Amino acid sequence: MKGVIAIYYDFLLTPEAKVLQEEVRRFVQEVPRQLLLDMDAEKINYPREFLEKAARNHLLGVRFPEEYGGRGLDWVAEMAALEEVGVLGTALACLYSLPSIVGEAINCFGTSQQKEKYLKSTLAGVLTTAEALTEPRGGSDFFGATTWARREGGHYILEGQKRFIVGAEGADYFMVYARTNPDGPAHEGMSAFLVERGPGVKVEYLYGLMGTRGGGTGRVRFEGVRVPAENLLGKENGAAEIFYRMMVPERLTSAGGALGMARAALEVAAGYSTRRKAFGRRIKDFQAVSFKIAGSLTKLDAARGMVYLAARAADEDKDPSLVRRLVSEAKKLATDTAWQVVNEAMQVLGGIGYTNVYPLERILRDVRLITIWTGTNEVMDLIIQHEYYGELKNRRRQVGRDLEADAKEADKEEEKVYE
Predict the structure, then answer these.
(1) Residue 168 belongs to what domain range?
(2) DSSP code string of 308-373
(3) Are 248 and 326 within one domain?
(4) N or C: which end of the chain has fewer CB within 10 A?
């Protein structure tokens, strides 16, 4: 069944974003079916030509300035684009997002030379990139990283390893976080670097992944790598600021891609329900089936609304605490929803949905990862509650209605025992 649902939401988009959405939709339609099959079978470990074609179509890093090859659009436009790419699965959606994710750091913290050399070349499809953040000892504990870099003259010597790096297999350069001040507080001792593939950079394609295959996921070892000092991104020991900024692109891109994967599964299931018959009737005429479609569609629309709300907040450069909360909510809701919708879609198809006759089993394997990466959804809960309690505390200092007083016996202070 051909994807059609997203076209009904174009009223959320500017004219420029509508044009982008349509261009990405056409680009996605032209992606060979065999590419998806070969990636899932791990016959292709890194589809560089996919990124090169996207670059030729001016579809990478659409938020960045035109002088570097972007379109100068906003996060809402990128969400529309990512939903379209998301129907292809997690691996291609993530590879499509990497120029936006790494590009965010370069655009916000890089020098003009770094933008010219790396950002412009990435958006042109000349260079490919990956973000090297996760380490074997833990993923969510960013400040517990053990990869280190030491300044020696005009270079830094980089040692350590990262794993679960999507795009590692084909990346020309990596954005790497490393400890540069082992004696100071953890949040004041990390730096970020742009590290080119070369001597001492060893990529190992190790993982037998459940899904999200073909995206070049691997382990990257840095063994005495000499990184030019001009490849320091931002300030030495200042990576915490970059890391907090990167929460936005990492989590919004995950949320946007999740919408596409959920939409793909829902459309397959809905299409199947209009053709499959049981007991002499199309199964869509049974409420047990049609109500699953209705519930899934409602959840998907709610998730899309949350994603666009968070994107708009990021575009408006609202209070950082609010943006962090909304982006975390969007990532959690969109990825949890995708997992729920895909499972319901498989239930609609029944046994045939569990086979490779339909793409649901591949989508399910792909979707399982997105509740884990770019911060697990449990970490999203941690951020959401932390930011909300901070907002609540500040709100109480402001003039507003005393909500606790709206009870008949609210004045009985002796009944309000807290300790």
Answers:
(1) 132-237
(2) HHHHHHHHTT--HHHHHHHHHHHHHHHHHHHHHHHHHHHHHHGGGGGSTTSTHHHHHHHHHHHTTS
(3) yes
(4) C
CA distances from 145 to 138, 179, 202, 203, 273 (A): 8, 7, 19, 19, 49
Write out the H or E segment, with its range, that includes residue 191. Answer: strand 190-196
* CA quadruple 229, 218, 100, 56: dihedral sign: positive
Q: Which amino acid belongs to residue 155?
A: H
Number of neighbouring beta carbons within 10 Å of residue 148:
19
Point out the domain boundary residue: 127, 150, 167.
127
Encoded tokens for 145: 């990283």
Kindly report the average pLDDT of the chain as a whole number: 92
Q: Is 118 helix (H, G, I), strand (E, B) or coil?
A: helix
228 within 8 A of 154, measured Cβ to Cβ: yes
Name the one residue in this structure whose structure tokens are 């000349």: 126
CATH classification at residue 374: 1.20.140.10
User: pLDDT tens for residues 250-285?
Assistant: 999 999 999 999 999 999 999 999 999 999 999 999
* Per-residue pLDDT tens over the stretch 122-169: 999 999 999 998 888 766 677 778 899 999 999 999 999 999 999 999
CA-CA distance, 12 to 304, in Å (whole number)? 11
121 assigned to some structural domain: yes
Rounded to an integer, what distance in angstroms lies between the CA atom of residue 36 and that of residue 89? 8
Which of 125, 213, 204, 119 lies closest to 168 in space, CA to CA?
A: 204
The pair of three-digit structure tokens given for residue 77, joined into one six-digit string: 């436009």
- Predicted model pTM: 0.91
Type of residue numbered 363: I
**Residue 371 and residue 338 share a domain:** yes
- Give domain status of residue 405, yes or no: no
Contact 154, 189 (CB under 8 A): no
The answer on 308 and 188 residing in a single domain is no
Question: In this structure, are residues 267 and 3 in contact, taking their beta carbons and an 8 Å threshold?
Answer: yes
Amino acid found at 419: E
Residue 8, pLDDT > 80, answer no
247 and 379 housed in the same domain: yes
**Do 210 and 365 contact (CB within 8 A), yes or no?**
yes
Quick: pLDDT tens for 401-413: 888 889 999 999 9
